[in-house]
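Lab notebook, page 48
Experiment: co-folding of the full assembly
Goal: obtain a model of how the components sit together before planning crosslinking
Operator: M.T.
Materials (sequences as entered):
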Amino acid sequence: MEQESKLFTVSVYTENNIGLLNRISAIFQRRHINIESINSSVSEIENVSKWTIVVYLAEAQMKKIIGQIEKQVEVIKAYYHTEEEIIYQESCIFKMKSDLLFDERQIQNIIKDSNARIVTVNKQFFVIEKSGRKEEIELLYRELSVFGIMQFTRSGRIAVSKEEMKISKLLAVFQ
Amino acid sequence: MDTKTIQKQLETQTKTERLTGSEAIVRCLLAEGIKTLYGYPGGAIMPLYDELYKYQDKIHHVLTRHEQGATHAAQGYARISGEVGVAIATSGPGATNLITGIADAQIDSTPLVCITGQVASHLLGSDAFQETDIVGISTPVTKWNHQITKASEIPEVMAKAFYIAKSGRPGPVLIDITKDAQFEEFDFSYQKCTAVRSYKAVPEVDETSLNAAADLINSAKKPLVVWGQGVILGKAEAEFKAFIEKAGIPSAWTIMGVSAIPTEHPLNVGMVGMHGNYAPNKLTNECDVLIAIGMRFDDRVTGNLATYAKQAKVIHFEIDPAEVDKNVKTDVAVLGDAKVNLAKILPLIQQKEHSIWRRAFDDLYAIEYEKVIKNDLHPTKEGLTMGEVLKEINKQSNGEAAIVSDVGQHQMVACRYANFKQTKSNITSGGLGTMGFGLPAAIGAKMAAPEREVVCICGDGGYQMTIQELGTIFQQKTAVKIVVLNNDFLGMVRQWQQLFFDKRYASTEMTNPDFVAIAKGYHLNARRVVKREDLAEAVQEMMESKEAYFLEVCVEKEDNVFPMIPTGASVSDIRLA
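Observation: model returned without errors.
Model output:
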């Protein structure tokens, strides 16, 4: 029976080596799966990278892909989570014309109400930063787009799990 | 390299020496026990070849006629010996020519270390002459790969490469080394790698799953074992034999698993899969417990998954956790090394005979014999069959030969009818189905096991994909026996065209050259057989030859391989005609 696709967040702990992005993204590409977002950063463990990948697929396939990811030599451990199992955030920045700050007073209210903040202001433009859930960012985008956005960028999702990810003990033997 | 590894201090290798990167590579190979390697020189790998020249009394480099041949020869070497095969190529086209062999080794779990030269590090990314991103290209088909730009990285990376290639589920590793790193001098010392922190080669033994598996096996009325190459790779042949003999379970093999126990073993019920035997395919859908050992439920084995062994409880002995539940849902997964787990389960297993159940296999074998096997092995029609050639080879080699096959109809016939007495005797391209594999793989196999008779069975199509390796055979005086079963067709594709495309033989008919003349051009003994009465004598001449020998057998043009499970059909819908 075909399972329904849903959104999963994948956490992958890896060595920090050249080429691993290729190796991990190839696992999705080979199965014709689009990656919604991907982020790589340092983790809570020294010299261990953590990847956060968001994908939309059926759980049975998600499990198989976790197996394929963990099979990669430089992957230490991989987990997948549903939306309910994690705390997640995304970040975005808007670049807008500075004149708007003075001509369109409601922009200040929008920024305040949405818990965004102004990062910098100069004569030509100002920059707004906002962190939050995807829907909050999309709402802010809609509200600001009526005034004209010069540039917009949103980051991939970053997430922590509510449950413990038992990874440190896996590495203990090498410390 | 940031990856943390544990390296074993070797007593003989603790002092450091000032060496170039290229000499260090040779010393690493020697430290890993490599005595033979296959390759092809070129600009970016010349420093390494210069060292191989200096070390030629310690390490034998075999010049193949194409880099693909080097990988297949290294595969043949690995498959017959259980050791790591090594292939070397230059950058750019040399490196890309390795890819087919690497992909083949990946899907058939063959331990391989491939070393490629690369343009100097300051040229990386500049589209330099013969520059290609071989690390990027080989990523999806390697177990691991790495680029070295500094000589000082060589010992650790090479140690890791060999460890990864041969440990756990084996596979190919590619190491790309820039030309400047080959020239650079550094203080060399070598320690073997014994662990990589991000990599668990073998899952831990789980007593609970072993007990659960034993309970299922002990309560089974109609158990069936399907084993694969995992039994051979895990060197678990003795434990496997003891297990099936005690449990009295009829056992069928995948194409990669054959020869782990002798063909004539009473519990050996033949091959599963698309062109496998009638009984094990039919009875897959009647068994109550299916015990898969070191196999991965390839689609050519299972046919339609929706109707595959749905009535059975499935036990899966497997070293690679990613294989469990990948294709077939498992009731009990016994993760880990086959040798260890089969030894551990043996005392938990009750002695059984299952004689009534085993008779069901005999009954279906009798049907297959009447409808298929008899006509293949004892034909009454005029044209020669592939099967009778195999029968003759069996007879004259006394079942002691290692059979290296290419891909196609002849491969299925070879695997179905070859008589094996010892393990690691069937070398073929199973997962990737690489035409052109046979001839170079036979070279590697013969070099790794010179005391064994190595018979390469090819079709006229695949043979011509790597026919240039006759040059290697001639130069190296490799005493392989080459049999081309010539039907002037790409026979397997033609069979499908006949059965599923209304006999529209699109681009499958071959106008072939004089194969005997070509072999003689390479100064090989060669002979052609067109009549049945000449076959036995020709095979005898071939088997008695101390040198390489080429035998072309012109077989019936439009014979088909049966039984057959059409694509998408159930294993129990296997056709006999």
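Interpretation: The mean pLDDT of chain A is 93.
Next step: discuss with group before ordering constructs.
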